[in-house]
Please model this.
Amino acid sequence: MTSSKPKKRYPRPPMSLIVENIEGYNLDIYLGGSIAAANRQLHQEHKIKIIFNCAVNLDIDLVTSPDHKHQTPLLNFGAGHVRYYKIGLIDGPGNPTEMLLSGYHLLRAALLQRMPEKASYPVKEQGNLLIHCRGGRSRSVALLALFLHLEYPHTYPSLQNAIDLIRTKRELHPDEWYETPKPALINAAEEAAKMAKHLRLLTL
Model:
């Protein structure tokens, strides 16, 4: 009976700057893992005001101002120090194409959204974006690559162009590129890009 060798994991920063002052949105886009998403000090240092979670199996309590209606034993709820959005992706097979496509639209809408002048919307500054999954190496890479490819086709004419940039900026080791992102996520993102382009043609 042979035992399989464990995969080698390579170190990477908690989060990485992928695109600076991105055209049309005028903010910086960072990509990271759960440690970065849960680090309030890191958010403050890098002016993160938007956090976008790509993982279906990862929940982070970002509440800093509990709602006055909150009472034990209810779970914590209220406002956080950032605006928080989530799309539930599986790290591998199992994601419908529509899940990647809806993730692109939700990410784009989160960057375009503007908060009203009401106390119940405390985080009004646009700030910078952190997009993350558990490790910041697969789900978040696939979704951000899809966003860059669809938003900036002249800079990233293919999905792979965007993946190549993210792998470099994220400092992902070439030995793990075969799963950063997972092939099933690349395929789903490719199909989502085709679907998005088809929908655009229908509206012309």
